[in-house]
Amino acid sequence: MDRFLSNAVNRVDAKGRVSVPAHFRSVVQKRGYSELYALRALDVPAMDVGGPDLLDRYETRIAQEDPFLQTADDMSFFVHGDGTFLKIDQDGRITMSDFIRAHTGIDREVAFVGRGLFFQMWEPKRLAAHGAEVRARLSRLRQAAARPPAQRTE
Prior knowledge:
By secondary structure, the protein is of the alpha+beta class.
């Protein structure tokens, strides 16, 4: 399988490094990534992390915009200014930089969450709260879809 699936929590060591979960490292190896691209998530306190193809995907989208409009400039500011490359050392660890910590609130532990083509890094308590919100939203959608059309109010 070459998708980032599941989740795991790993401790940050005294030097500020954290081991990428083994099942995520195997995806990284299968895809041939020598470094990872990390982007501050737009709406949540997490980092979106993937290979160079994740950056390529964003840059392809930026290229579709009119370069004279604010949207292209804003997108570039976000993708390039809120992104960074992460090196994975020989032991499968990455460093939790101040750049990452400031956005996520990560301190002693990192929650890794698979998102298919990329993964996210979260502070575990923030991830738990976000997960509860996501499940509640999906539950409401399911309940609304189960009601007869005349009773739906969305």
